Fold this protein.
Amino acid sequence: MQHVSPESAVKHADLIAVASQGAGAVSGTSFDTKGLGDVIASLRSGTNQATGTLDVAWEDSDDNASFAALLDNSAVQVKFTQVTTATDNANYRILLREGSHRRYIRPVGTVGTAACVYGVDVEGYSPQRSEQADGESAFQTIYSAKTTTTT
């Protein structure tokens, strides 16, 4: 469900609800970025089972039907750092700059070998709150450190 806060011009949505996911891929709910500036994507990682790995990449679409890998300026797919048992129980964030993606975005989480607990959400900001300075990267990891998380 997407929520818009008029006081702060913020739109928030949970795209993959926090839950334990077994091996395989899960496509998250899409997020409509129309009228928004920058988007902050957050990965909330809980505990991975032994040998469990988690990769969360991003896709985008013009029509909310045909999605393709979201690529950065170097043609590399935009994704969070892989989460392993050594880096689980943490929060990770990526900044998706306005204009760096098509209208709709969604995460795709892929769990390898053993179950992992995780969820993905986004916050979009009005263009007035997210003016981009010249020379800044379109995609930027703004926080990627191991911290305690509650799930």
Observations:
- DSSP finds no helices and eleven strands in the chain.
- The chain has one domain: 2-130.
- The CA atoms of residues 90 and 146 lie 5 Å apart.
